Amino acid sequence: MSHNTFGHLFRVTTWGESHGPALGCVIDGCPPGIRFTLAEIQAFMDKRKPGQSRFVTQRREEDLVKVLSGVLPEDDGETLVTTGTPISMLIENTDQRSKDYGEIATRYRPGHADYAYDIKYGIRDYRGGGRSSARETAARVAAGALARKVVPGVIVRAALVQIGKIKINRDNWDWEQVDQNPFFAPDAAIVPVWEEYLDGIRKAGSSVGAVIEVVAEGVPAGLGAPIYAKLDQDIASNLMSINAVKGVEIGNGFGAAEITGEENADEMRMGNDGTPIFLSNHAGGILGGISTGQPVIARFAVKPTSSILTERLSIDKDGNNVSVRTKGRHDPCVGIRAVPIGEAMVACTIADHFLRDRGQNGKVR
Amino acid sequence: MSHNTFGHLFRVTTWGESHGPALGCVIDGCPPGIRFTLAEIQAFMDKRKPGQSRFVTQRREEDLVKVLSGVLPEDDGETLVTTGTPISMLIENTDQRSKDYGEIATRYRPGHADYAYDIKYGIRDYRGGGRSSARETAARVAAGALARKVVPGVIVRAALVQIGKIKINRDNWDWEQVDQNPFFAPDAAIVPVWEEYLDGIRKAGSSVGAVIEVVAEGVPAGLGAPIYAKLDQDIASNLMSINAVKGVEIGNGFGAAEITGEENADEMRMGNDGTPIFLSNHAGGILGGISTGQPVIARFAVKPTSSILTERLSIDKDGNNVSVRTKGRHDPCVGIRAVPIGEAMVACTIADHFLRDRGQNGKVR
Amino acid sequence: MSHNTFGHLFRVTTWGESHGPALGCVIDGCPPGIRFTLAEIQAFMDKRKPGQSRFVTQRREEDLVKVLSGVLPEDDGETLVTTGTPISMLIENTDQRSKDYGEIATRYRPGHADYAYDIKYGIRDYRGGGRSSARETAARVAAGALARKVVPGVIVRAALVQIGKIKINRDNWDWEQVDQNPFFAPDAAIVPVWEEYLDGIRKAGSSVGAVIEVVAEGVPAGLGAPIYAKLDQDIASNLMSINAVKGVEIGNGFGAAEITGEENADEMRMGNDGTPIFLSNHAGGILGGISTGQPVIARFAVKPTSSILTERLSIDKDGNNVSVRTKGRHDPCVGIRAVPIGEAMVACTIADHFLRDRGQNGKVR
Amino acid sequence: MSHNTFGHLFRVTTWGESHGPALGCVIDGCPPGIRFTLAEIQAFMDKRKPGQSRFVTQRREEDLVKVLSGVLPEDDGETLVTTGTPISMLIENTDQRSKDYGEIATRYRPGHADYAYDIKYGIRDYRGGGRSSARETAARVAAGALARKVVPGVIVRAALVQIGKIKINRDNWDWEQVDQNPFFAPDAAIVPVWEEYLDGIRKAGSSVGAVIEVVAEGVPAGLGAPIYAKLDQDIASNLMSINAVKGVEIGNGFGAAEITGEENADEMRMGNDGTPIFLSNHAGGILGGISTGQPVIARFAVKPTSSILTERLSIDKDGNNVSVRTKGRHDPCVGIRAVPIGEAMVACTIADHFLRDRGQNGKVR
């Protein structure tokens, strides 16, 4: 398990479990001279923070980020400037209830990594999911907040587009809505529908999957490579590294399989200002692995959490047939909290490719 | 563009374009003592070879693999034994028709990488797609043939499960059928339907997308890691590195977003022989990034090729509005030839994780 | 500056400067099931700790290591067991005297990295050397302490063999002596000589270089690779990554250039127990990049610190000719404290190659 | 053995043995738009070519480089332009005399990698040294020839400065001399001395070591990083990856251990043209891991080859005590041919760090 690092020049290494004293990340390769404040980082952390509505886990943590290295403070007492050295970020774990996890210390939750961990490692930190706890993603969000600053002008946003079988109406898409509801829904009309549906899931102690869409605007044309190190390959890899993600697609994605070359072609015209205009964006902003300057669009599917109240058949560590139900705090739809995480992973990927193309020194100041 | 290498311990570097003298790969990290014959490699090459039916490009190449290093010949004159040193494989390009590519030297095909290449590199090998030619995948298939030998008992197979909107009937799935038809279809009943549909596409000079499913059986439990270096992450990354792939999913994939935790849970019972039995495989053989011993299942979507006979609006290198139609050889459904390629990429990924878990020396002999 | 990580499977990422709140490392790839105590780690930290004699910097820090992730505590309240997940170690900076560094904020110390930093980054943490402070090496020593546990039976020790032009008498070599004097000298007779010499250096506000020898016993035969990823190459790289190191050699090292093939050959005989015996060890335990089972021997040269009291000609940030003398705490011979650091780097290198050969899972428990 | 790749952005993967059909390399990450001719590459190959004097092995090969991918030919029929895709270079093996290697197929040459190979791999290509044959270095020289073109204005040269105990007189240093004698000696006066000495070694069937010095001028200031990814660390690593190298040093190297901080300091003054002048170069052009703009200076020690005519004690594959003498072609001083190899490795290292700093695209055209 030696690869808790992603990125080639903008490299992020995360560490930490749900029930240790803290978790965090080391960002290696951030160029020098980038200015940021803790408040800017914290704004993204707050989006991911649990306990903000009844539709996500009730674990409550402040998720305050400490920056331990790699920056010099400016005289205003708020601004930090990167020095080009590794940036260590730390987030304390403050709300740990180990007693909740008694039974699943020995019984494997069907659909959960419990069994796979024991097979691989022979030892398992069952408390709160251990390394695969959703808490690990706090470190990703912190890294993503900084990554955005590396690429001048880039805007990376995400929204929830599907819960269970219920999809948004794309004609209603309005980015303004995303922060106005507990689902990060870009479609105001879907909110009451999802509320009612998820209340049912929640009360049943059940869970359900979701689909998230990430859109990155202002990505310079020319990032990525034709095959291997494709920008879309690295986005797919980084999104797939998030817990519970089972599918990733770029632009039309699986929809591209269903259409003809005529339909899929994004036609081009020269704009009046001498820059090319694409008449559509089936490609999701990436052709042949390389960004075209159009918005980069990625979607990923999150499975329902396997921690549910309904009894399921399973085995225990000693090989006995048992049944398992997961008590304690539940996340009826873990996909909701994956929205800021998806944003962060795409932002990191773009920052990494930006540095590959432009170099690590002196480009951003 | 410095990452034409995939894998961490079983590392494959590919090189070559459609119109140079040759293409190939270097396999670094293959354990010593593995025995194989050129005929075994060639069997996989022949599956990928173009010109085998009217539904794929009519370019004809023998795709004979030469092994230039990393092996010792045994006395039988056929068997080669790996020595643990880099294995260089070379495939000559024999059927190059440069004259076919006149117009697209300057005009960007909509949906093709032409524009992105010029933006990034300022120079472009337009002949046959250059580096992003499907020919590059020959090197992957050669590497995959060897990768299978690294993991004792593993069987990696793939099949085409969808062309355009027409899906196979999964109840008809029969692996025996896959090599009996020009589509690698596991469903005999779909073959005449696809034939008729693709004949229409072909005659119209059009193209259409497809979905491929890869199934790996005999994968030892315990390969992969909880987050980052997840087996499914690396499979997704490697499949997404194939030309024209726009989506990847594991097990239920995007379908997992639509169901509840109860439905998605793969229940377990102890088998009579003391090994656990899973009652379903929604997870696609991977839980928490780690293989469980169940079949590993991945699917990927291939977009329709952008080389079509219908005129599309575009611009040229000098910024003029033009229209483009691609003459020359066509691939009505490039997804068909992606079947052996997907197999190869999954085989390489599994070999890589097998070595991470078991080490590079002395495990396979 | 995106490579503060060393190792391929046993990967160590360090972070932190002299004057931030803390420094530390993340160890990724440590196999599960390894038992250790903080006291075991601390024993190595204490060897590196400054302020222990008048011959090293008088900065005083406890250098207590906190382990923030990757372990489960056992019932004895002391033993920690690795789980296979990233191990984050943190060491607080407690003795920072920023006021000491006034003048060198703008004036470049000749022979120091000051000038190079400003040229590269345009921003520089001048406080205590910033990232290139010797404090960073505390994280390496912590990682090295754990690395030793990865390879059963390995013993990695180092000693100071030269200060300035004064070398030890190798006939006096006694490992027992190394911890009995402030120089890590293996030769008791050299101690008073070095004391007198270094007292002179110290009183003059001067500094002097040194040579350290690292010996690893119990290294299994077969680690490394013939060319590239040679065990000696990775040892050289990792030793050269230590501050102020200007040369590295293996076995006879530069001495090998002076002798003939007859002299340099390490002859072999079969031992009575059926294991081969080498009659000499000119190779330093590594032939063709691969360990032979003999002790692995490496040496490295540390230059004198450039922080000296004597005025030297230089320039300042604004391009003026100035002269510089460094006030504040001095290290008359930084090479002394490099002894435990060299040990740590060799231990990490061996652990990394051990895992490459044997795999990351299930080998050590 | 999965790391036959060096470099992070300018990545070179070599493959091939002495006795296969060919050897070569893949250069991945070379920026697009670099113009070169085969004749330019060949000039460096010819320097390394064996059989050019009685002081090196009598194996005769043309070492003609074929470029198989990654370039477009220009209209002059000579110039090749890089396209940014992987560049595959191939060199055929034409002079193989397998019959020479009979006895050493089973007997381990003392000081040679024979024993280590068998311990590690259990299989060994004994013919001509297999993978660790000096022939592998032909691929490095080819890569180095291209690397020089990546960094505008850089000049990388090397010279032999010591054979056995006989060193050149540095006061006589004249680069013009290096190509005027069979030793790459920069000191004309040493040539007859070395000739006489090496004639004795050669006639005795013996061998002797050597030291090579590499000097890179025109290296831009600011390449490298403070600790880890130090420019000197990567130079050391890459030089140590060459066969038979046992020591590496930068600038003063081991000499730095013998002097004081006052002596070692490279004082600075502002030049009349506003660029800083260093009054000495003890640091070898690198301070704190970062290039300063001064010449980069590295030295490495090559041990005597273990293939000698004198009988030495050893064991064989079956564990019997035997004696070994190596018949066939000999290299009395393999260090001589290491001169162009050292140049190539330093050139590749500098190109790699240049791209890390400046980015891979659009900098060199």
TrEMBL record, chains A, B, C, D:
It holds the Pfam family Chorismate_synt. Its cofactor is FMNH2. It catalyses: 5-O-(1-carboxyvinyl)-3-phosphoshikimate = chorismate + phosphate. CDD domains: Chorismate_synthase. The keyword Lyase applies. NADP(+) binds at R48, R54. This is Chorismate synthase. It comes from Rhizobium aquaticum.
